[in-house]
Design goal:
This protein is mainly α. It has a domain at about 1-30. About 60% of the residues lie in helices and about 0% in strands. It has 3 helices and no strands. It starts with a helix and ends with a helix. The relative contact order is 0.06.
């Protein structure tokens, strides 16, 4: 660990900040742990739009919404 600390100290301050950010990212990623089984609690959320769109049209519309298009 001393070698790592020495290497970081030899970096310019802005790169030291990047190292710190990356370490923070790794710690957060590790703490999230494995995901649980999907719940599918969203299923049927758009069923009221079934008369307006076919399933394929609805898939395209959802893609547009997610991309921020209208």
């Amino acid at each position: 660990m001393d070698r790592l600390e020495e290497m970081v100290r030899d970096l310019p301050r802005e790169l030291q900040q990047e190292v710190e950010d990356f370490v923070q990212f790794l710690l957060e990623k590790r703490s999230k742990g494995p995901r649980g089984k999907p719940t599918f609690d969203w299923a049927g959320a758009l069923k009221d739009m079934g008369h307006q769109y076919t399933s394929v049209e609805l898939q395209h519309k959802i893609s547009e919404w997610m991309a921020g298009e209208e």
